[in-house]
Amino acid sequence: YQITEKISLFGDLQLRNVHYKADSWETGEVNDNFNFFNPKAGLNYDINAKNKLYFFFFLANREPNRTDYENGSPRPEKLNDFELGWRFKTAKSQLNVNGYYMRYKDQLVLTGGFDDVGAPIRKNSGDSYRLGLEVDAILKLSKKWTIAPNFTISSNKNVDFISDVNGTLTNLGNTNIAYSPEFIAGNMLTFAPITPLRLSLLSKFVSDQYMNNIDDASGKLKDYFVNDFNASYEIATKSVFKSIAVNLLVNNIFNVDYVSNGADYGGGYVYYYPQAGANFLVGLTLTF
């Protein structure tokens, strides 16, 4: 809805019904009916041709899946999400800044373990939240050079998390949500010496993170920084194909030893999944 020339409102309303019925040795007897009310509303403010502000709120409910039922008696999760952002755009640059506060009830968080078929196990965590800032930009340094940095800084917490400690249910206070690093940053530096050729350096940094919800340092992934290289060359043709594109991707060009994932079953049973060293892929894309 357009209030003024610069201010507009938007909204959306979704009603969902989910009915689960099952009876198996994996899930037990299930006969659950969920009625979800998911409204969304927001406001856009055009400061001028280059700058825009926005704010929106939405309420979202999500049902547990089959794997969740196989690993316990889950409840649906409820999310209240508040977001405030700024967009800046010119012919040579673009900047997006977004702040968010996501308040959960019964969020289905990863526990760090996997079930007997390799699916990650999730459990309801009670109260939890994710508070963060996301920033991404595209800057055209010249006709040939472009840089596209981005980063996210966040706090991801279980509130008054209850855990079994030596057979006793204990309130651990606020703990970090599993697999939720506080800082992620990336960048893509692109050089196009000639129109059909693009050379890009892709960099990514991920801070350390827990694989559990009890802040147990024995199940912690270390931070890592990796770089990939991508080259693409597109040839326009007048024969059978409209164009032929050759792509080269070299992953982990500096052959860094790092671990990006793992599993923590508790009690010191921790497993790490080391990633590949330097490796490459070559592809060919034919456009008709």
Compute the gyration radius: what is it?
Answer: 24 Å
Q: Characterize the biggest β-sheet.
A: 13 strands, antiparallel
Order of helices and strands: EEEHEEEEEEEEEEEEEEEEEE
Number of strands: 21
Note the total helix count. Answer: 1
Mean pLDDT: 94
Low-pLDDT residue intervals, each spanning 5 or more residues: none
Principal-axis shape: globular
Q: Bin the helical content.
A: under 10%
Separation of the first and last Cα atoms: 42 Å
Structural class: mainly beta
Proportion of residues in extended strands: over 45%
Structure characteristics:
single chain; 288 residues; mainly beta; 13-stranded antiparallel sheet; 66% strand; globular
Tell me about this structure.
The protein is mostly beta strands and 288 residues long. It is 2% helix and 66% strand. The strands form 5 sheets. Strands 1, 2, 3, 4, 5, 8, 9, 12, 13, 14, 17, 18 and 21 form a 13-stranded antiparallel sheet that branches. The longest helix has 5 residues, at 66-70. It is globular, with a radius of gyration of 24 Å.
Short characterization:
The chain has 288 residues and is mainly β. The chain is 2% helix and 66% strand.
Task: Summarize the SSE layout with pairings.
Blueprint: E1 7-24, E2 28-46, E3 51-62, H1 66-70, E4 77-89, E5 93-105, E6 108-114, E7 120-124, E8 127-140, E9 145-159, E10 162-165, E11 168-171, E12 175-176, E13 183-191, E14 197-206, E15 209-210, E16 220-221, E17 224-236, E18 243-251, E19 259-264, E20 270-274, E21 279-287
Antiparallel strand pairs: 1-2, 2-3, 3-4, 4-5, 5-8, 6-7, 8-9, 9-12, 9-13, 10-11, 13-14, 14-17, 15-16, 17-18, 18-21, 19-20
